[in-house]
Write a structure and sequence with these properties.
Strand content: under 5%
Order of helices and strands: HH
Radius of gyration: 19 Å
Number of helices: 2
Structural class: mainly alpha
Number of strands: 0
Largest sheet: none
């Protein structure tokens, strides 16, 4: 029982750390712009790959 409780506490702390880090990461505007540019680039690349495959 104690191991399960320790695992649950560790999991909750891990999730809180991930949540806090993601909030900090996406609150910086330059990071969001970088992520948007990456998504746009990969979508254009995928469109190019699909057109070459036809």
């Amino acid at each position: 029982m104690k191991e399960d409780k320790d695992n649950n506490i560790s999991f909750v702390l891990f999730m809180l750390a991930v949540l806090i880090l993601s909030i900090v990461y996406f609150s910086v505007s330059e990071r969001v712009v970088f992520l948007e540019n990456q998504i746009e680039w990969w979508s254009e690349f995928w469109d190019l790959v699909k057109t070459l495959g036809e």
